[in-house]
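Q: My labmate handed me this sequence with no annotations at all. I'd like to see what the chain might look like in three dimensions before we decide whether it's worth expressing. Could you predict it?
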Amino acid sequence: MVQCPNCSKDVSSHTPSGGEQVLCNLNNEGGLQEGFDILPILKEESYLKAFPEERRCRAFLEFCAEGDVGAILELINGDKGEDDKDVSMNPNEEGAARPIDVLRYQDPMGSFSTGLHVAVSNGREEVVWLLLFVASSLELHFFPPDVLEAAQTLGVTREEQTGKVDIRILEDSSHRTAENLAQQLGGVWESWVRSERLRPIIDGILPVV
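A: Here is what I predict for the chain of 209 residues:
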C-alpha cells in the first residue's frame, strides 16, 4: 500500500508524532492540495475491497459526521426495489450471509466508533436525536416536541427496541460511550450530560430530566 506501483519504492514518511503518512499533491474538483496525506483513503479503499458489504455502513458514518439527516433516513429506510438487493451482509462462522445492523455499526478503522459517537464528535445534535429515536430505548417523553414533530413530518417510525442493543451502551476502542465522549467535549453537550439522555437504561433505572 505504501509502495510506488511503478518502482516499488516505499513512499511513506513519518508524521511529527511518529505515525505513517503518504504525502502527495492531489488535484481534483476542489483544486490543488499540496502535501495531502492520501494514506487514510488508501487504507479505506483496501478495507472496502476486502469487505465491500460495509460500504453502506461507512456511508452512514459519513452522513452522521456531516449532519445529513435526509441521507441517513434514505439509507436506513432503503429505496424499495433498489436498496433491498444491496443490504449490507457479513458472512457468519458457517459462511452464510447475515445482515449488518447499520444503525449500530462500529467502525473498525475509526476506533470502533458508532454513528452516535461520530455525531457527538462533530456536534450534530439533530443526528443524535434521530439515532436516539430509532436505535435506543429512551422514552418518548424525553424528546422535545419539535423533535417528535420533525420525526412525524419526515415519516420516521420507531421500531420496538426489545431485544435490540441500545446504541448508548456501545463503546469505542477507548471504552468510551457516546455519553463519555460528550462529557469530554463539553460545550453544546453539557446540557445533554446533565439531562442524562445519552445514558442507557441500566437495571431498569431511567435517566432524569
